[in-house]
Specification:
By secondary structure, the chain is α/β, with parallel strands linked by helices. It has 9 helices and 13 strands. It is globular.
Length: 305
């Protein structure tokens, strides 16, 4: 089982224009969190001669189902996430682990009741036009999931992705969800031929942190995608390719069932080829992809931590 709770999947959202976006101005500052964890991350960055900078990110404050789906965002900072979601099992020696404090009964609270930063991760499977899925092996220098496999692109929704376009952004389809793809792979949005929202989950390892998942088809062959990444400034790992034949972003029910039945073999193949373990975001992205025509079977159906 994958330690994540599925909130939405592709079957819930046939059209991202139907998912409304709301923004509230109140900046979120965590009332619970580990300053010791933030200090440890800072020391680690300094030791590896890597910059460890703060940034304004978008917190998913609520998910409403009142006749339509509405995502409610508010501003927070990356450091708030470091002190909360990224520090769930950090024992500071005095207060113990944050997980025991905020989830003493082992149950995941509603987003609107959470005291964690919950900034939203974004991930995307990338498919070339010559039958390959592009994925990455993250370097040892990154802070999250080092030396693990991740989707073609991944990152976090920044406040600017929502607020800078606030006058025009009303729904999920208008959000700049492919900024990370350009930053990591050097591929511009105009090269996208098809894309699909695949799911929204809460990752249990990080206290219910929200993660969005997409699939993207490009008008580029795998070799050209590799060339683009070789010159990008935001390179965070190495590219690997998985042959997918005719399996792309949109799957028929037959394709979905076949891939779902072979999910374990799919993951083993990727891990063997890249000589690394699959990260939780990659596993979740793949699970939403192969189960896009049905209720997710691989994700945990219960909200127990």
């Amino acid at each position: 089982k994958i330690p994540a709770v599925a909130l939405l999947n592709a079957a819930d959202i046939p059209d991202p224009e139907e998912v409304m976006i709301e923004y509230v101005d109140d900046h979120f500052d965590a009332t619970a969190g580990s300053l010791s964890a933030l200090e440890e991350y800072t020391r680690d960055a300094t030791g590896r001669k890597k910059s460890f900078y703060n940034d304004e990110t978008a917190r998913l404050a609520d998910l409403r189902y009142d006749g339509r789906i509405t995502l409610v965002f508010q501003p927070t900072s990356y450091f708030e996430s470091v002190k909360t979601n990224m520090a769930m099992d950090f024992d500071d020696g005095l207060h113990g682990c944050l997980r025991d404090e905020v989830h003493p009964d082992g149950r995941l609270e509603a987003l609107s009741e959470s005291c964690l930063a919950n900034h939203v991760g974004i991930n995307g499977l990338v498919f070339s036009n010559d039958g390959f899925m592009v994925f990455q092996r993250r370097s040892a220098k990154v802070f999250t999931n080092p030396n693990q496999l991740c989707p073609g692109f991944s990152g976090a929704i920044k406040l600017a992705d929502i607020k800078n376009r606030r006058s025009g952004i009303e729904n999920l389809a208008e959000m700049d969800i492919f900024r990370e793809m350009f930053e990591e792979l050097g591929i511009k949005e105009k090269m996208i031929t098809q894309h699909r929202f695949l799911g929204l989950s809460r990752e249990l390892l990080r206290g219910g942190k929200p993660e969005m998942f997409f699939g993207v088809e490009l008008a580029m062959c795998a070799a050209d995608i590799q060339k683009c990444m070789s010159i990008t400034k935001e390179k965070e790992g190495d590219i690997f390719l998985l042959e997918t034949r005719n399996d792309r972003v949109y799957l028929s029910e037959q394709q979905s069932k076949r891939l779902s039945d072979r999910f374990e073999s799919l993951v083993i193949k990727m891990e063997t080829d890249a000589n690394a373990r699959a990260s939780l975001p990659l596993l979740t992205n793949l699970a939403f992809w192969v189960n896009q025509n049905q209720a997710p079977k691989i994700l945990m159906p219960q909200n127990k931590l």
